[in-house]
Amino acid sequence: MQSRRRLPVLRREAVAATVPVIVGSLLAMAGPAVAAGPTGASGVGDPYFPLAGNGGYHVSHYGLTLGYDPGSRHLTGKAVLTARATQRLTRLDLDFKGLKITGLTVDHVKAVYKRDGQELVVTPARPLRKGQSFRVTVTYNGKPGPVTDPDGSLDGWIPTDDGAFVAGEPQGAMTWFPANNHPLDKSSYDFTITVPKGRTAVANGVLLGQSTRAGKTTFRWRQTEPMAAYLATATVGKFQVKQYTTRSGLKVYDAVDPREAAAAAPVLKKLPSVLEWESKLFGPYPYRAAGSLVDHAPNVGYALETQSRPVYDRAPDLSTLVHESAHQWFGDSVSLTSWKDIWLNEGFATYAEWLYTEQHGGDSAQKSFDALYARPATDGLWAFPPGDPGSGANIFDTPVYARGAMTLHALRTAVGDRAFFRILRAWAAQHRYGNGTTAQFERLAERESGKDLGGLFHTWLYAQGKPSTP
Ligand code: ZN
């Protein structure tokens, strides 16, 4: 199969950043500072997605019980969120779009709610104290469908001819479960998914068990390590399944659409060696489970690094597998604090592809860098600086991926290999299962290298146009 990008096919060519967005402070995230008064904020303050996530509470666990019928495309759901208030709350928001709600309780007591676009505004019968643990239970059903992102791509619950391709970056999680839908809020997950016998439902983490009764099969999945809502999946289809444990004890679960099986097999076979190679470079693989989910979803146009088990819209090529695997460290374990910092995900995963090529008999990273640098100043690659994409419409455009990777190469050139790989490992270790910002990465790089890197980061991450020296 031809080499292809993970980028949405619908994507426009990169255009110059439009109106600069005034950035609210994301530094004092997750609650008190963003919320005014005793009502939780409707967003965490993300400049590109102002309604994403919510202030005033943290979700520690999602228990999702779903039933999906691919024939009628009907979904039934029950979501149990275990959360803790980070401030006194008379009211709180969840992100949830579309599906009909049939019941909502807070600590088993019926709560008043209203819906306003993607905001599900909940008023518990009794206010929640600061620090109080509470449980929100929402039952719902309907025919889920995706949202259309600012870049024109589909995201969320995307029906296919035999099930659904489920991916949520950056917004789509709210199309199939109520969530605190921002990478700042990370949680463990349990999934119980029932589908007609003969279909397979694949989520994140470890398969706890499956059972078939009365023509239906229920799959139980558990994602123990913290996960951002956008990385959750519950992909359904007719899949060929393969399970094995690697030499290092990782539980691998591959689910492949038979139409993609022949093309996928030689690539999926390499997953253990790719993860091992990445572990040497980036530090220990963050999860106990791994695998690949290869669907046949021609209308999607991208793959996603769903946690522990990336989802592909078709058989991936090797560099796509390397890319989505690298995201397990950069994006999934170390998550964004703001979507504006997306180069921390995409630049890193793209640079991992260059490194893989370099260390497996292909072009050096320098050569990949040079080929890009040779592009004329008018090329879309230079349309905007990767550290400041300008809007949510640009976060998956070429400058983020390619110039983001070039930034890391420029850093490597400046500090040398030893310091560079130490920086990558320290980044993965210090923010493991958490979040990071570009400013934190810059400080870490300066600390580890003992160099002033302000000029380098300014040139590669923030300066408009093609940098005048490579
Ligand atoms: Zn990526």
Describe the structure.
The chain is an alpha+beta fold. The protein folds into two domains: 17-272 and 285-316, tricorn interacting facor f3 domain (Immunoglobulin-like), CATH 2.60.40.1730; 335-462, Orthogonal Bundle (Neutral Protease, domain 2). 23% of the residues lie in helices and 28% in strands. The chain is built from nine helices and 22 strands. The chain has helices at 261-268, 271-282, 318-326, 343-359, 365-373, 398-415, 417-430, 438-449, 454-462; strands spanning 57-69, 74-85, 92-95, 100-106, 109-110, 112-116, 119-123, 133-142, 147-148, 154-159, 164-167, 186-196, 200-202, 206-213, 216-228, 235-237, 240-245, 251-256, 289-294, 311-312, 335-336, 435-436. The strands form six sheets. Strands 5-4-8-2-1-12-15-14 form an eight-stranded mixed sheet, with no helix packed on it. Strands 17-18-19-20 form a four-stranded mixed sheet, covered by helices on one side. Strands 3-7-6 form a three-stranded antiparallel sheet, with no helix packed on it. A hairpin with a 2-residue loop joins strand 4 and strand 5 (109-110). Helix 4 (343-359) crosses helix 6, helix 5 crosses helix 6 (398-415) and helix 7 (417-430) crosses helix 8. The protein is globular. The two termini are 33 Å apart. Mean pLDDT is 93; it is low at 1-36. The site of zinc ion has 5 residues, from helix 4.
Brief overview:
The chain is of the alpha+beta class. It is 23% helix and 28% strand. The strands form six sheets. The chain has an eight-stranded mixed β-sheet, with no helix packed on it. The protein has a four-stranded mixed β-sheet with strand order 17-18-19-20, covered by helices on one side. A three-stranded antiparallel β-sheet has the order 3-7-6, with no helix packed on it.
